[in-house]
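Pipeline run #58 for the internal structure catalog. This entry was flagged by the ingest filter as a single-chain record with no existing model, so it goes straight to prediction. Upstream metadata was stripped on purpose; only the residue string is passed forward. Reviewer on rotation: M.T. Logging verbosity set to normal.
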Amino acid sequence: MQHVDLKEIRAGLHVGKKVTVCGWVRTSRDSKNVAFAELNDGTELSHTQVVFDKAKFNDNDLAPMLALGAALRVVGDVVNGQREGTYEIQAESAELLGGSDGTYPLQKKRHTMEFLRTIPHLRVRTNTFNAVFRVRSELSYAIHEFFHKNGYYYVHSPIITGSDCEGAGEVFKVTTVGFDPTVKSEEEYYKKDFFGRSAGLTVSGQLEGEVMATALGKIYTFGPTFRAENSNTPRHAAEFWQVEPEVAFADIDDIIGIATDMIKYITSYILEHCATELKFFEERFEAGLIAKLQNVADSDFARIDYKDAIEVLKKSGKQFVYPVEWGLDLQTEHERYLTDEYFKKPVFVVNYPRKIKSFYMKQNADGVTVAATDLLVPGVGEIIGCSEREADYDKLLNEIKSRGMKLADYANYLDLRKFGSVPHSGFGLGLERMLMYVTGMSNIRDVIEFSRTKDDLK
């Protein structure tokens, strides 16, 4: 269907010309001699006004074309709007491509986020979600562009795996075998299954990414990951997208530098390419958003040792809900204090206790901490988990055994430490958490097209 994008109309590219446009009615108003409809076709956040001279249209034909949510095809002349620098279309003819009855749930009033989550198939037609997913697209592109420009290879890690990268057991099982009361053991059950063994949805592409990095040097994966974590918080989802670079011949300091460069790059990209959307979010969701992002792009990130962070929190005078002690993981309230009040900018917390981190992280010389870091950002908390990987075969083997993990599931991973092992590092960035940060949206359910959380599968 030949038509002009409304983005071109708003840019003033077709003034004085006859055009054909398509779009959905976002708002409309009717009067005695003229009617107006604001159309949006998804090419831009703002709408384009179409003016209907009632002398040219039958009222019975025009009425359904003014219904909110209706899809139209309009032919008309592009003219200057009432406000300087704006343009509208004087309709010559119009066709109703898809009608919308009176039950359309997106009316002119402002709806709550809770309500909009109940209609994920329609909420993207609101200004808020139109802007969110436009920024999500640009953010994804910026991530790919950063790695491509810096010589990384994009690799595809499997979604179905036989191992739990994080070792926490929060894996969705993948099976073709239904309930079978005749099965007497787990071993018998899995022998009947598709792979002949237990399988699950990936919690991370890291283990496969390390394999690829030992041959290609610098790689990144970017795809969906899954956690069967019963956590009903604004920051957790059962399905989310994650970018995970792995770099050979890189220690913890190298990967911190890479993470810093990437965050600065993609933040600057969004500032440049999503100015309209950022202004929208600043006006409606987070005052000072643009200045916050500009500060990230322009300033150095802070860095603090975990043990020193614990002391800062203890001396803060704050009454935290969760205890602050060496050996305990930092909670969101602790992270927010460090970023929002103490440093007032992103901060890397490094050298976490070994017992609270994953099995694959490089053990420091002290034997009790690992070369791991989390990047914490204001307003969100942890946004990147990062570490140097353990390259020593014996240390890695002992760690897997001490945690009661199945050696057979990690045989190939251990092999990498036998054949040309090198220092190597990587990190994981949750796309949705980064998107929350750059938009000011406070709930992860509102930056995913179709969120997957506990008891929610729409």
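catalog note: The chain has 14 helices and 15 strands.
catalog note: The first helix runs from residue 6 to 10.
status: ready for reviewer M.T.
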